[in-house]
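Our consortium's second objective concerns turning raw sequence data into structural hypotheses that experimental partners can test. To show how far this objective has progressed, the report includes one record in full. It was chosen at random from the queue rather than selected for favorable results. The single chain below, 191 residues long, was entered without modification.
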Amino acid sequence: MTHMADEEFDIDTDDLERRMEGAMASLRTEFASLRTGRASAAMLEPVMVDAYGQPTPINQVGTVNVPEPRMVTINVWDKGLVNKVEKAIRESGLGINPQMNGTIIMLPIPELNEERRRELTKVAAQYAEHGRVAIRNVRRDGMDQIKKAKAAGMSEDDVKLWETEVQELTNRYIGAVDKALETKQAEIMQV
């Protein structure tokens, strides 16, 4: 939405939206690292391997596949890195025991018990709350920009228009967080 006041007052809603989208992106990454009972390549995203002296994501040292719902395989390209990949997974806290087969590492995904599922839904809720807080902080910045513009002489009508726009943006992203949380918790609870 562009307003006549754009020339005089710069309320950068594109920047606000970019920052809210950033909060959503990091929430999606956090959710991906939460293990459900299903195998997924995304669960390995937070795991870094010490490859050639620097932390490297697993998908940059091998091919990650999900051949069946409870199995992830990693075909490590460099034989010399197989043990490092295995060690990184073992120490990742994912609770998965890698099985070696030459340069292929197999990760059988154990079923989650009820208690562990409930724990994970709580963790997901905490991640979502962090996301909401980040979005509300961006909203506050936007409202501060509007206050400054108002002090500098922005019209009351324009102030209302901008506040409405920033609030609608916030509502949209908070809604997206809530929906993502609902989906993730359902995924975790699904047996």
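The partners drew two points from this record. Residues 114-151 form the longest helix (38 residues). The CA atoms of residues 35 and 62 lie 21 Å apart. Both points have been shared with the crystallography group to help prioritize constructs.
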